[in-house]
Amino acid sequence: MRRKRKALVTLLIVILSLTMLTACQPKVSTEPDSGIIETEAKIDEAAPEAPKPAEESKEAEEKSPPDTPIASPAEPNKKDEAEATAPKPDDKSSLLVEGTGVTKTITLSLDDLKAMKDSYFEDDFFSLNSYGTKEHFHFKGIKVKAILDKAGLKTNAKNIKFVATDGYTQGLTVEQALREDYIDEQNPEKKFPVIIAWHENGKDFDVKKGAPFRLVVGQKEPEDMNKPQWVMNIAKIIVD
């Protein structure tokens, strides 16, 4: 009986020791990792490494094109310089002559007109305006005929338009523009051509106020109202 009790106590001690030993060991989980951990792991796995600053700079240098040398501006040739200094059609001190009625388009400066001494004309022109006012004006200028000849007037040309800088136009036929027998009703012995004047009553026209040219036409006959034809600031002559 004593032996049985002793064996039983020994068995209980062994069982108790085994139980305590088992309780002290760490539990090994057989469950799969949680979804959150897996997601974080996948994100970490998929995220590329940020390039190092040095490597990024090197790649940018390799991709960027080489520096392109800046071309030096071409030196202007003599033709360009001549064109730059030539009078322009809209130059207030120049007169443009163009149209199908001339062989060439020309631009005449004030100095060019003054240099045409063979066709220079100076005299007192009689005027009659729409109010019946009669008076004389002293003009210096050049014959329109000489200007047309310089542009190469064609034999089939018929009409001429004298255009002011503000767009106002005065028309004459070629025949009227070429006449040199206009009159002064108060002095019938005198004869006058059609002129482009640059000087009136003692002084040249002011270029600051527009093209310094004025169309001047005498009377065709006594009581002819000619003053309205005296258009100021003529900048262009168109021949058709």
Structural summary, described in words:
The protein is α+β, with helices and mostly antiparallel strands. The chain has a domain at 85-239: Oxidoreductase, molybdopterin-binding domain (Sulfite Oxidase, Chain A, domain 2, Alpha-Beta Complex). Helices cover 30% and strands 23% of the residues. It has seven helices and ten strands. The chain has helices at 2-24, 35-46, 53-63, 78-85, 110-115, 144-151, 174-178; strands spanning 94-98, 106-109, 120-128, 134-143, 159-164, 169-173, 195-200, 203-204, 214-216, 234-239. It has a five-stranded mixed sheet. Strands 3, 4, 7, 8 and 9 form a five-stranded antiparallel sheet that branches. The longest helix is centred in the N-terminal third of the chain and has 23 residues, at 2-24.
What attributes characterize this protein structure?
Sulfite Oxidase, Chain A, domain 2; 5-stranded antiparallel beta sheet; 240 residues; 5-stranded mixed beta sheet; 30% helix; rod-shaped; 7 helices; alpha+beta
What's the arrangement of secondary structure elements?
Blueprint: H1 2-24, H2 35-46, H3 53-63, H4 78-85, E1 94-98, E2 106-109, H5 110-115, E3 120-128, E4 134-143, H6 144-151, E5 159-164, E6 169-173, H7 174-178, E7 195-200, E8 203-204, E9 214-216, E10 234-239
Parallel strand pairs: 1-10
Antiparallel strand pairs: 1-2, 3-4, 4-7, 5-6, 5-10, 7-8, 7-9
